[in-house]
Design goal:
The protein is mainly beta. It has one domain: Trefoil (Acidic Fibroblast Growth Factor, subunit A) (Trefoil), CATH 2.80.10. About 10% of the residues lie in helices and about 30% in strands.
């Protein structure tokens, strides 16, 4: 049986991928009140750095610890797009609305701008997360360590662009 290389590249156990696929069958609206974690290819979680409540706090990968700064609420905003709300009541945001490669993902007060809208796919809640600039969220350089920044980069299909929303 041939498997998707994107799924195999996540490094997640098959049970976790199966659970993610089951979650993916639901709509993002089903996750609006509960909150989700977003796992990286390194089986780490997206994390608001230092549990900050401030605007411009960077989003990094960090070992999953169940803290609130690793939980996000998905809010559908139309046209197949969602915004991710942080524990601080702010939105994930491509810093400065920039379309430049390597732009950091931060948290910022929700303002309805396009740089706070994302698409998840292609496999429901498993796969790439694309930005308004049609670029992918990416663990910078495929780094494995805690603290690696989450940035916007051209979509290449590489393993460090794969995320699982659980």
């Amino acid at each position: 049986m041939k498997r998707s290389s994107a799924l195999m590249a996540t490094g997640l156990p098959a049970a976790a991928l199966a659970a993610a696929a089951a979650v993916a069958l639901g709509s993002p609206a089903a996750h609006a009140q509960v909150g989700v974690t977003i796992r990286t290819f390194a089986n780490k979680c997206l994390d608001v750095k230092n549990e900050s409540f401030a605007d411009h706090a960077r989003i990094i990968q960090y070992h999953c610890n169940g803290q609130d700064n690793q939980r996000f609420v998905l809010r559908p905003v139309g046209a197949g797009e969602v915004e991710f709300r942080t524990f601080a009541g702010k939105c994930l945001d491509v810093s400065g609305g920039s379309a430049a490669d390597g732009t950091n993902l931060i948290q910022y007060r929700c303002n309805g701008q396009v740089n706070q809208r994302f698409r998840i796919g292609p496999l429901g809640l498993v796969g790439k997360i694309t930005t308004f600039a049609d670029k992918c969220l990416d663990v910078k350089g495929g780094l494995l360590h805690d603290g690696a920044p989450i940035v916007e980069e051209p979509c290449t299909g590489l393993f460090h662009e794969v995320f699982v929303v659980l």
